[in-house]
Amino acid sequence: MKIYKNEKAKRKILETYNKLLTMWGVDVEEKNIDTKYGTTHVITCGDEDNPPLVLFHGVGDDSALMWIYNAKELSKHFRIYAVDTMGGPGKSCPNENYNKSFDEILWIDEVFIKLNIEKAYVAGVSNGSYMTHHYGIMRPKKVIRMVCMAGSVSTVGSPHPIKRMMKVFLPEALFPTQKNMIRLIKKLSGEHSEVFTDNDDIMEHYLNLLKGFNNMAMSKHRIDSFNDDQISRLSGKCLFLIGEADPLGDLEKVREKLEKHKLEYQFFKGVGHGINHEISETINKRIIEYFVQ
Question: Domains in the chain, ordered, with CATH?
Answer without folding.
Answer: 7-291 (3.40.50.1820)
